[in-house]
């Protein structure tokens, strides 16, 4: 009985780790399914509309039943701000992402997500929302990590080098005669264009992250806010898709990879994963959650290599090392800064209590 209780306690303590592993597999699946659907001919703009529609439908019941009904109603000005943020962040980011993935690969899409902390820090520093103290070690770590992260993405995109020996496939692959989804119909110029678009998509997403702070302070029902933004993004993307794609047949969904992909990205990624991440953040904190980000890249690269015979190059490996190194440097610097800030705050409170006691005793 005692050993059983010990096992239960151990399993309970491992739940955040298991949850984060599951989340990274989900994110890897998002890149793989998205690439598969678009490579099979689905219009990227139509994909975004369906994904956001599924996400809105999946989140709406939870937002209605689980969050307090006492939430203050939305004002016109606040609704306009949310509309603008959804347009600049979610709509722009997702449409650029799915256009870019048509020119690049699922592995590259997963790799560039590691630049998000670095780009977010750079943008926050430009908007004076993040402090930059180069004289302190944590400040240097954040700046260096940002440079390494962006440099790693550029190296991954533009530097190939020789292919990895253990990734040499049969001769048909080497001659480009197979049906590889990652390289089919993709030239060097298209890869460069897709890489730049993907980095632009990440930049738009970082802008959305930064703009969330002021909005959440005004409307604290986070799940309802997320659902509303998904819905607004769906409507905005629909106008864009109708303007770009005039063929009605592009909107048809059958029982194929197209339906599976949009349902997966909308329900599993935006629905289930959202709640799991919130739970892990509450248990372990945001830094713990961010530390698992590179796993999605590793999982995507392995599956892409075996499923689609996607080749990996030494240049890509160098880019990944820079990406991951930059990610952890930014996270370490931010954690160190937060700890010092908390320590200084506690010291100041202790001094104030001491002075107050002295005055009271006198």
Please describe what this structure looks like.
- The chain has 14 helices and no strands.
- With 362 residues, the chain is mostly helical.
- The chain is globular.
The end-to-end distance, rounded to whole angstroms, is 59 Å
What's the overall average pLDDT, rounded? 78
Shape: globular
The largest pleated sheet is described as:
none
Which bin fits the share of residues in helices? Answer: over 70%
Output the helix-strand order. HHHHHHHHHHHHHH
Q: Report the count of strand segments.
A: 0
CA-based gyration radius: 23 Å
Low-confidence stretches: 4-11, 169-185
**What structural class should be given to the helix and strand makeup?**
mainly alpha
How many helices? 14
How much strand? under 5%
Summarize the structure.
This protein has helices spanning 2-13, 15-39, 44-66, 76-101, 106-112, 116-126, 137-158, 171-174, 188-218, 222-244, 257-284, 286-290, 293-307, 314-361. Residues 4-11 and 169-185 have low confidence and may be disordered. It is mainly alpha-helical.
Topology, please?
Blueprint lengths: L1 H12 L1 H25 L4 H23 L9 H26 L4 H7 L3 H11 L10 H22 L12 H4 L13 H31 L3 H23 L12 H28 L1 H5 L2 H15 L6 H48 L1
